[in-house]
Amino acid sequence: MTISTVLTSRLKDPSLALDKALVGGEWIARAESGKTFDVTNPATGEVIATLPDVGKVELVRAIDAAHAAQKAWAKKTGKERAAVLRKLFDLMVANADDLATILTIEMGKPWAEARGEILYGASYVEWFGEEAKRVYGDTIPGHQADKRIIVVKQPVGVVGAITPWNFPNAMLARKMAPAIAVGCTMVSKPASQTPLSALALALLAERAGVPAGVFSVVTAIDAAMVGQEFCANDKVRKVTFTGSTNVGRILMRQGADQIKKLGLELGGNAPFIVFDDADLDAAVEGAMISKYRNNGQTCVCANRLYVQSGVYDAFADKLAAKVAQMKVGNGMEEGVTTGPLIDENAVRKVKEHITDAVSKGAKVALGGEPSPLGGLFFQPTILSGVTSDMMVATEETFGPVAPLFRFDTEDEVIAMANNTEFGLASYFYSKDVAKIFRVAEQLEYGMVGINTGLISTEVAPFGGIKQSGIGREGSKYGIEDYTEIKYLCLGGIE
Ligand SMILES: NC(=O)C1=CN([C@@H]2O[C@H](COP(=O)(O)OP(=O)(O)OC[C@H]3O[C@@H](n4cnc5c(N)ncnc54)[C@H](OP(=O)(O)O)[C@@H]3O)[C@@H](O)[C@H]2O)C=CC1
Ligand SMILES: O=C(O)[C@H](O)CS(=O)(=O)O
């Protein structure tokens, strides 16, 4: 297929821009169906690549190759797998500039932020390369004189992975690294809007020594077909998914027949609470990164900002002053802090949330309109006077809109913060230690940022409760999800 020179001309190593899918160790330029799909730059609307739209034939071939390769890969020692992941980490860092350019041009986020994502994704590869040597088991005192009990952990087997467009490198690295660290193999399907980052990662993995078949990247428009095959094919032992709760629900239903092992990182609706005793400048800094990182297109973005009455006006003024300094534009341009939204649906949802809030009494304190740049660009926005009956209170905006809610008491804000089916990330600012423990213990979320707006790191367990998902990614907890526990009972030991 094709890759635009708009992209390749910007790369030190143009070979990192792939117009092929990786199926069982073979780079294929053309699907058997002959079908293709385009990848466009959301900042300009230009077609930057045309890729093979692989079908079930190629997908099953990738799954069969992963199954065939898995036993040999699992027989490698943890140390041998660690060495391959270390090499991949080194290659990701060495090629971070090119990987960032590919990411910005296919997804839109500003280049500096894209490079940050590459290093974030690489941190998972580094972390799980180290963990590969530490998949410990147990010995348990026997329950009878002649018994000896050993607990071992073994790789789950073939893993199907489906990843979203908003972090096209890091979300895949955070799945692929633990999987191959423990001896699993993986077939992955990136979002059709942003497949190039995944393909570049697959090329570097190949260069790092990941054997053929161990890691495939299938490029497909028919995501539902991929999910159905992952759930129905008994060679696939686990499905790991990051994306919307709706699709997570579909996968759970589809996986039920085989009791498929699932890892689900789904939607969020994060509260961001500023108490009267907060350090306001720190709270504003935290709100800026928690709300506007990736143009508000992250599952852990502050979706509702609750500000206690005593500091509401001061916080709102300080936040507006900071947001007014943001620069909307093409992520490849120097100084741009805010790129385009991913597509027209995203723009439509942002507009809908603003219109609904204003119709119910909220005020636009800043922004509120599409950017004069046109296209998919939107002004960073602050809404004031927001109330719980508005869509922004119950739906994830996934865009650059900060809705400010006023509250009076601690009990009132905890009840409002917990009043959602989601439970991924939450944040609050206070200097009172007793209050910090009281509030943190009552918030019904998998992750709580306290006096910080950025909690994502490879060393901690990332994930949610309620309808935000199942399982954790990153940290020592993240590798467990790719292993099965086996208990050996040795008898006759007289
Ligand atoms: N918890 C977390 O870490 C994250 C959660 N999210 C959540 O996801 C949403 C936004 O991301 P978005 O990418 O639009 O989410 P989607 O769920 O629409 O897409 C995520 C991935 O799933 C694929 N997909 C779509 N439909 C199906 C299906 N029926 N079966 C199998 N796979 C399918 C998509 O393919 P294709 O795009 O090619 O259609 C894409 O690769 C938000 O709610 C956000 O909060 C997003 C990122 C991280
Ligand atoms: O996809 C996402 O939103 C990521 O999980 C957010 S983070 O890990 O970069 O915080």
UniProtKB/TrEMBL annotation:
MF terms (GO), sorted A to Z:
succinate-semialdehyde dehydrogenase (NAD+) activity
Origin superkingdom = Bacteria
Question: Mind telling me which Gene3D superfamilies this protein's record contains?
Answer: Aldehyde Dehydrogenase, Chain A, domain 1, Aldehyde Dehydrogenase, Chain A, domain 2
Keywords for the protein's UniProt record, in alphabetical order: Oxidation, Oxidoreductase, Potassium
Which PROSITE patterns would you find in this protein's record? ALDEHYDE_DEHYDR_CYS, ALDEHYDE_DEHYDR_GLU
- Please verify whether the record's keywords include Oxidoreductase: yes
Give the active-site positions. Answer: E265
Q: Name one Pfam family in it.
A: Aldedh
| Keyword Transmembrane helix part of the UniProt annotation | no
Where does the Aldehyde dehydrogenase domain start and stop, copy by copy? 31-487
Q: Might you report a single GO cellular component term?
A: cytosol
Instruction: Name one process (GO BP) from the record.
Output: gamma-aminobutyric acid catabolic process
Q: Entry's NCBIfam families?
A: SSADH
Similarity comment text for this entry = Belongs to the aldehyde dehydrogenase family.
**Name under which the protein is recorded:** NAD-dependent succinate-semialdehyde dehydrogenase
Query: From which source organism is this entry?
Result: Ferirhizobium litorale
